[in-house]
Design a protein that fits this description.
By secondary structure, this protein is mainly β. It has one helix and 15 strands; from the N terminus they run βββββββαββββββββ. The chain has two domains: 4-19 and 147-258, Immunoglobulin-like, CATH 2.60.40.10; 37-141, Immunoglobulin-like (Sandwich). It has one helix at residues 130-133, and strands at residues 4-8, 37-46, 57-62, 79-86, 92-98, 101-109, 122-126, 135-141, 150-158, 169-174, 197-198, 204-210, 213-221, 233-239, 246-253. 36% of the residues are buried.
């Protein structure tokens, strides 16, 4: 079956979207954390259904060497924390960490029947506000027995010329919590089943190995000289047999100098089409 092709203009989308930039408050924590500290909830879920998973074990590391990402070996490595935890029946476990630092959560044991995460660690900044609100870090796992045959290709194009654009960064999120719109944080967030991708010289990037379901596309960064959309979230789109389990999404963005003055008609509407033609 032929893949469905969709043109996306994620600026002022009509679709109702809830997009959380930071973790929401934990519901009634049992006690206040220590001064200068915050509670971090590690959440292990099935990457396709959102089902909580017991038996995931985590280590916590603190960023100490000012190098991007986690370095867990060698004399100049980051610092492993004394705390760690394993998820119970609710798929949750909790640690307490000092605020004002950057940390990495590493899943060192996976739930029975599941694979290790696609991304080896989850990094997060523990800001002062987390002492009041708490923070939830979700690490999805994929079943060893599941078959994943779907794929979504993103094509990034100049909004005026249609030329391919290199270096745009996207994430794919799967609808798993039954709540309208996208929720990216908290104890009942939707799931990001694959690592993000950046468009290549041809202006494309691919998310492969996806299960059937509804997906959101989130634009995280744009090529130099282009404008980040006012609303970076588009979708959801249904990936299943009707779509041939393949979807092509074409995303147009304008250069900074292409943005019209206030009050002009800048075409800020949801645009969906089967052709790859740029918007008028």
């Amino acid at each position: 079956m032929k893949a469905r092709t969709t043109a996306v203009r994620p600026i002022g989308l009509a679709t109702a979207v809830v997009f959380a930039a930071a973790g929401p408050a934990l519901a009634a924590p049992p006690a206040a954390p220590s001064p200068g500290a915050a509670r971090v909830v590690l959440r292990s879920t099935d990457a396709d259904t959102g089902t909580p998973l017991p038996g995931a074990r985590f280590e916590l590391w603190r960023e100490t060497n000012d190098r991007a990402g986690l370095q867990s070996t060698g004399p100049a490595g980051d610092e492993r924390q004394a705390v760690g935890c394993a998820t119970g029946a609710t798929g949750l476990c909790t640690v307490e960490l000092a605020t004002g630092e950057t940390y990495y959560a590493v899943q060192v044991a996976v739930p029975t029947g599941y694979q290790r995460p696609d991304e080896p660690f989850a990094g997060f900044d523990l800001r002062e506000a987390a002492a009041r609100e708490g923070l939830v870090v979700t690490v999805p796992n994929r079943s060893r027995d599941a078959v994943y045959s779907g794929g979504i290709q993103v094509r990034k194009r100049d909004g005026k010329t249609g030329a391919p654009l290199h270096g745009a960064v996207f994430e794919i999120w799967k609808e798993t919590n039954g709540t309208s719109g996208l929720q990216t944080a908290g104890l009942d967030a939707d799931l990001r089943p694959r690592a993000g991708c950046a468009t290549d010289a041809d202006g494309t990037c691919d998310f492969e190995g996806l299960a059937d379901g509804s997906y959101f596309l989130v634009e995280k960064d744009v090529p130099e000289g282009y404008v980040m959309p006012g609303n970076p979230v588009a979708g959801p789109w249904r990936l299943d047999g009707a779509s041939g389990r393949r979807i092509v999404l074409t995303v147009y963005n304008k250069r900074a100098e292409q943005i019209p003055t206030v009050g002009a008609d800048d075409g800020r509407r949801a645009r969906t089409a089967r052709s790859g033609a740029p918007p008028e």
